[in-house]
Structure formats: C-alpha cells, structure tokens
Amino acid sequence: MASHDTYEDCERYIYEQLEQAPPVLTDALAAGGPFGDLESCEEAFRAAIPLVRRSAPEWAGTAHCLYAGTLKEMENHLAAIEHAGIGKELGLNLVGQWFYFDVMEYCLNQLDRLDEALQIADQAIKFFEQNGLEGFHADHLSRKANVLKQMAAPLSRDPAGSKEAKALITQALYAICKSLSINKTEWKSQEEEFKHISRIAARVGVTADDLGFLDSMDDVRDLVNPYMGTTSLPRRSAAQLYNLAIEAIKKNDRALAVRYYADALSLTREDNPEDRAFKAFLAYQYGVCLLKMNRLEVFDPSTRLSAAGCHAIVQIQALWNTTRRLFSSLDPELIGRWDQRFPPGLTDAVGRIEQDPWMQMKEKHLNALALMDQGQFREAIVLLKHALDEADGSDDIMFAAATIVEAYLSGILKKQRPRPGTREFEEIRNHIWTVMRVFDIQIPQFKAFYSRAYPIESMRELLQWMNSVAPQKDKG
Fold it and tell me: 29 and 104: one domain?
C-alpha cells in the first residue's frame, strides 16, 4: 500500500477505491459535480440505491453512506444520520467507512449531540489507525479535539464544572497535539483551533504538569510553546481568570469574582515589567472588588465596622500595597503605555490608593474592631492598649482611646454608667481624658472631623459626671 501520511494521500486512495463501485453510484456522485447540483445528486442516489441493493449488495451499505454524504452537504442532518446508520447495518467497505465516519461526526456535531459525536470520533480514530490511513487518523483526532472543546467551553465558565472542563480540555489538547505529531504540516490550519482550546485550558487551570504527553512530541512542543509553555501558560491563565472575574462582576456576583481574582493573582509572576504591570493592575482591581463587595466605597467614620469589613480592609491594604510596590518598580514609559491601553490606568489607581482613608487604618485597630464585632470586648481592649502605646499621631491616639471607651460602655457595661471605685470607672475616665486632651488642641476642621467620628460631647458630659462623683485631682 502506498504512503497515506497526509489527508490528501488518504482521500486520493479512497477515490481510487471508489472507481471500483458500480457505475450507477459513480454516476450519482457525478450528478453533484462541477456542472450538477445537490438536488440532482440526491435524486440520483435515491434511484441508485434500490438498483445497487439488487445487483451489487456488497456495495449496498456504502451506497447508503454515499447518499448520506449528499444529505450532509444539503444540511439534512437527521436524514444523513439515518442513512449512514442503515449503511452501517448493511456492512461497509473502506469507502463506506470513510463516508460513514465523516457524516456521523459532522451531523451529530451540528445537532449538538456531542457525546455521540465523541463516540464516533473514537471509533474513527481506532479504525483509521488500524488501517494505516494516518492522514484520516490525524483528521479525526483534530475533530475529536473540536468536540471536546465544545463540551468543555460552557463548563469552563462555571466553577462547579471547572474540574470536568479541565479533564475534557486536557483530552482535547492531547488529541490535537497527537494529530499534529502525525502531520505537522497542518499547523497553519490548526493554529486558530489550538488557540481556542488553549484559552479554555488556561481558564480552568491546566498546568505544565498536565501536559506530560508533550515529552514524546518535541516537534509539537515547539509549535505550541507560545500558548502552552511554562511561562506563557500561567500568564494566559491569569488573563482568562481576570476575564472571568469581570464577567462575574457584570452578573453582580462579586464573591465569585474575588475567587477568580485571587487565583489570577497567584499565577501572575513578577519576572518582567509587563507582568509586574499586570499584577499591579490585578491587585488594584481585586481590592476594588473587595471594597464594593463589603460596601466600603464610602468612608463613614461614625459607622462601626463589622468583623468581615475589618478583615476585608486588611486584605485590601495588602493588595493595594502590592500595587504600590510594583508600580514603583516600573519605568515611566511603560506606565504611560499601560495607562493608554487600560484607562484610567495604573497612575490613576495609585493616586486613588494614596487618597483612600481605609489605607490609613492600622491593622491592630482593624483587628480590635473585628473582635468587638464578635463580642470579644476585653480582648479588643488589650489590643487597643497596645495600639495606643505604639500610636504615632493624633488620629491613632484618638481612635485607640475612643474605641477603648466604646468597648467598655457598649460591650462590657451594656451602656450603663460605670460604678465609681471600679477598675472600669478609672479606665474609662483615663481614656476619655486622653480623647479630650487630643481633641481640644486640634484646629477647627479636625475638630469637625473628630466630632463626626466619635461621640465627643457625650464623652465630655460623661467625664464631667465622673469627675463630679469621684473627683480626680491630677486630671480634669
């Protein structure tokens, strides 16, 4: 047998075999040739099939599959499948097998009966490999990859289906790479399909560890490396996860977007400036998503944060500090290009970070607020006292002292006035005095801010009452 390494070699061999068919079949095929039409061809086959079944029964099954091929070209998929099935039952020679697999795979695919199309593709792969028709073997491997790609695509956008999508798309990668290993000359025609497959693979977290089959396909590895290499694959995965996060936000599912952002950030390297720019942008957008998910867009100093809000701010601070760190490592020219490509850009992002009031909050303060939200007031007071010892400015002192007072009054004493002579009484008085000492020396605009943030007048009244019932000689 001559070499059948390419699809064209195999197709030529099939048509050589077709010359042995009864003339009525070749005439029917010719009816759809350059000077015919599909309707004439379809009519000729309907007339030919009964004749073949009587005069050349060994070609009867193949005749039905040839007819199915015409029906496929007419987009009559159900009828094509029906006649291909009849042909299979009657028995097929090599010509019939080729038409049978071609019709069944195509029509089942068009009808979205993908599970059945996949079964047929596997049968075709096995048949043509066993019969040495490597061109057809490669062709059906690439068709299998296409079916698997379609099965994986919708699952890849659903977290619940990502594991199944990863298994399917890994099979698709193997199938298309195996096809290319048989016939590398098909790369130009297959590259666009490979891009689509690799995009899904990146989306569901396929890694180099999943591509061990490339170890025996060195030539193919060189072809696909721009899409599936150890550097390019994580980069593409991060980009796909970022896109999924944007889609989730559009659907008002910020919790899902946060998961995608976290995964994307973990994959993004810092080896080169472009990667650092993307990671800086990604960290900023991740922080914005957390900010909005926790309804922290508007800073209101009078609103007491929940534990979840406190933890979110700590996380946002870490993310935005990453953005600032990476931004400082970038060349101004690259920053300018990035700002133009992705407006409003990194410069705007860093400017917003610098102005955001949540970035000024200390981690101890946030952790104390979280403890208070969980009812752990005494533990919060201990933490706030440490924060007060470390305070390096009026804001820090005011926050720690005023929050200690709040923890005592609202949490421990349940909004009851403290009893003179108790430890709580003296603790509260000392910390209110600290608040007033800082407040009274501020300029008017800062006094206005602190008055919005803390119950200054209520604390002043409480301090006056405390001093009246238990005078304090050294403070007042």
Answer: yes
Please write down the long-range contacts of 85-91, taking CB distance under 8 Å and 24 or more positions apart: 86/61, 87/60, 87/61, 87/62, 87/63, 88/61, 89/61, 90/57, 90/60, 90/61, 90/64, 91/58, 91/60, 91/61
- pLDDT at position 476 is 44
pLDDT at position 439 over 60: yes
Closest CA to 429 of 389, 454, 401, 452: 401
pLDDT digits (tens, 9 = 90+) for 133-142: 999 999 999 9
**Average of pLDDT values for 19-37?**
81
Give residues with Cβ within 8 angstroms of 172, minimum separation 6.
Answer: 144, 145, 146, 148, 149, 152, 197, 200
Decide if 360 contacts 395 (C-beta within 8 A): yes
Which burial class, exposed, middle or buried, applies to 85 when counting CB atoms under 10 A from its CB (0-12, 13-18, 19+)? middle
> In angstroms, what CA-CA distances link 192 with 176, 179, 195, 215, 262?
12, 15, 5, 23, 29
Q: How many domains does the chain have?
A: 3
Residues 6+ apart with CB under 8 A from 194: 176, 224, 227
* Residue 3 exposed, middle or buried by CB count within 10 Å (0-12, 13-18, 19+): exposed
Cβ proximity of 232 and 225 under 8 Å = yes
pLDDT of 43: 92
Q: Are 152 and 205 in contact (CB under 8 A)?
A: no
Residue identified by tokens 């990859």 is: 145
- 263 and 377 fall within a common domain: no
Distance set, CA 405 to CA 197, 436, 466 (Å): 60, 12, 13
Rounded CA-CA distance 107/73 in Å is: 10
Q: Is position 305 within any domain?
A: yes
Write the CATH number for 275.
1.25.40
pTM listed for this prediction: 0.74
Asked whether residue 169 is assigned to any structural domain, the reply reads no
Q: Which amino acid is at 327?
A: F
Identify the residue whose tokens are 């050294």.
474
Q: How far is CA 120 from CA 71, 100, 126, 220, 410, in A?
A: 18, 9, 10, 26, 71
Domain hosting 98: range is 1-111
312 and 243 in a common domain: yes
Query: Of 331, 360, 389, which residue constitutes the final position of a domain?
Result: 360
